[in-house]
Design goal:
heterodimer; A: alpha/beta; Rossmann fold; 2 domains; 42% helix; B: Helix Hairpins; Heat Shock Protein 90; five-stranded antiparallel sheet
Amino acid sequence: MKLLVVEDEPSLLQSILEYFIQEDFLCEGVAGYSDAIGRIDAFDYDCIILDINLPDGSGLQLLQYLRQYKKEEGVVIISARDSLDDKITGLNFGADDYLTKPFHLSELNARVKALIRRKYAQGASVLEAGNLRLDLASRSVSCSNQVVSLTKNEFDLLAYLLNNKNRVVSKQAIAEHIYGQQADNMPSFDFVYSQIKNLKRKLKEKGSDDLLHSVYGLGYKLSL
Amino acid sequence: MNKTLLQKNTRILMVWLPVVLLACSIVFYVLMRMQAHHMQEKQLLLKQENTWNAFLGKNGQIERNISGEYSIRQTDLAAINNENAVRDTAIYYAEKKKLLPFQLLSSRYQWNHQTYVLTTYVSSTEISHLIIKVFLTEICILLLLLIAIVFLNRKNSGRLWNPFFSTMQKIQEYDITRNPGFSLPAETGITEFNALNQSLTGLISNVNSAYHHQKQFVENASHEMQTPLAIIRSKLELLINQPNLTEKAAALLGDITEANDRLSQMNRTLLLLAKIENNQFPSVEAVNVSQLLLQLLHNFKDHYEAFPELNCDIAEGVMVHANLSLIEILLANLTRNAIVHNLPGGKINIKLTASGLIMENTGLPAEGNPEEMFERFRKGSHQSRTTGLGLALVKQIGNVYHYHISYQYSNGWHRVAVVFG
């Protein structure tokens, strides 16, 4: 999968690239509008991660350029602007998703993967790890062909961890992924712990043991 | 004692005008008396001249004495008393059966080597009647004048001060957070009020721009902070994914992550506050508060294992006209506060009616003045995961929709009341 990251902040660009390279993406990063146009003209990408505020132009202009030349790249906007209007404008200009800074890389990863699934692999919406199968289309989970019944939150949590397989995902990232802005209203992330505990128990019952690991209380990792 | 301008003005006029008018009347009376006296003297002299001429013309063959008119006496005396001076006297009128006041003037004349004393009379009744009538007329005119002056003054003051009162009203209606567009007429037709309006317009535009800059600063600062926060967050995520992470390093990273998250949250809230202040939530719809509150409580119960004992009295179908997100934020912040600042095993009472919402929770008394609870970064307790902005946000949203929000603490209960405007 080829990915283009357009972000003017070098440190952030570098972090994003590092994260996605570990996810086996073919990544390229540019810091400005004109560089980005050059790359888009020369190559085809599966997904573009796009910052709106660029030193020599606007990400929205870039979006217009893409749609004008009928480029089919999926675009995820990353922006410091978080108002609904900004989001609607971005999506109207043809972006597929909109993420507000500061975001979690694991969240960005999950969004990019979801986008790529939607755009290119119609129907193939199954995430797998060992004998665990999670079907996003039918929202069902099975373990060695045994159905595991999960609550909505547990399902979202498991899908999130599967999207970020073999990565440590922080408690905060999980909380924000499941509850969005409401995560701000929580005095502690204990509920993440209890959700994980329930999930572990349910998976263990169906014979899929030892998938979820806690990492020094920082977060959780799904690995075989 | 403070009185209105008009009252004060009328009062001064009512005290001083009569005094001035009274003094004028006295002067007028005295002057009129003097003039009357002078006129009588002239009349008496004229009468003497006419009578003496008649006397000489007829060679002394005229009536020597006509009562009330004149008398001519032959005398041997070289001098008489009070010659050429006007004196008062009285003459008896039989038909009226009374003495009537007169004035007389006596003079000496020589004719045919004889000395004559000619005395002429003029009635003073008419003149004193005239004086009284003129004086009474004058009093009437002065009274009319007094009334007219006061009336005109009142009427005119109202008109003169009109620009002032309209300026006053505009200033009273002015609210920096809501209507920064403020203009006073530059031309009122009165120089002083023009100057006043000009100074006020200048003052308010300065205040407006200071306020605008402050708002802009908060919003810009919050925006600019997003990027460094995003960088820190991304680096932390890469760090916790390092393969050779030690437990010690993990603990440090955990603390940094938590602090960074709090900072992000605070920043997000500040930005939200700035946006509400900048009126960036203009869309308004009918919001079902009852439904929203129940949904919210359901979610909160989901998140919290130790949700306090809840006592709900929520009326159905309570609607407000507002922005959905803002109402959601308001309710979520109040509920969150009630949970966070509660005691272990505490309680929450919620009462929602068409007119307002009352949220009570058990808890330790808050530090500081209850009035200041709604200010930014005012914390009642040292909870680590609170930003001190929750109630400021509630207040700000309340301001947008003119909700009255109050807080009090009594007998171990915190109580926040929101009255829908």
